[in-house]
Amino acid sequence: MKQGTSLDQLFYGSVTVGERGQIVVPAEARKKYNIQPGDKVLVVGHPNDAGIMLCKIDELRKMFSYILDGLETIESRMAEEQD
To answer: Are 23 and 15 within 8 A, CB to CB?
Structure first.
């Protein structure tokens, strides 16, 4: 969570699951995260079964790229320290 962000700023309302398992993402959340009709959104489960998260594929790709870049930097620094 970004520093200075409160939980109420991250809450966009509740949704009801329809008969076919569908939900409607609240308009405010769609606007903030630029979710457009036709966008692919992943449904990712929490490792401890605490819930699910929706994430746009492109944003998840950016996040993983950022993490991998950071890992490469850390590994490089560790290698330099060992020399």
So the answer is: yes
Q: What is the pTM of this model?
A: 0.65
Two tokens, residue 75: 């590994």
pLDDT of residue 26: 95
- The architecture (CATH level 2) of 7-82 comes to Ribbon (2.10)
Query: Exposed, middle or buried: residue 80 (CB in 10 Å: 0-12, 13-18, 19+)?
Result: exposed
Instruction: Please report the pLDDT score of residue 2 as a whole number.
Output: 62
Measured between alpha carbons, how far is residue 8 from residues 1, 5, 18 in Å?
12, 8, 25
